[in-house]
Amino acid sequence: MVDFTYIEDQRRGHLEVSPELRFFMNYEQAQAEHVAHSHNYLELAFILRGHARHLTVKGESICRSGELIVIPKGAWHGYSDCQDLELVNCLFSPQLLFAGIGLVGG
Question: How far is CA 72 from CA 4, 45, 81, in A?
Answer without folding.
Answer: 18, 11, 23
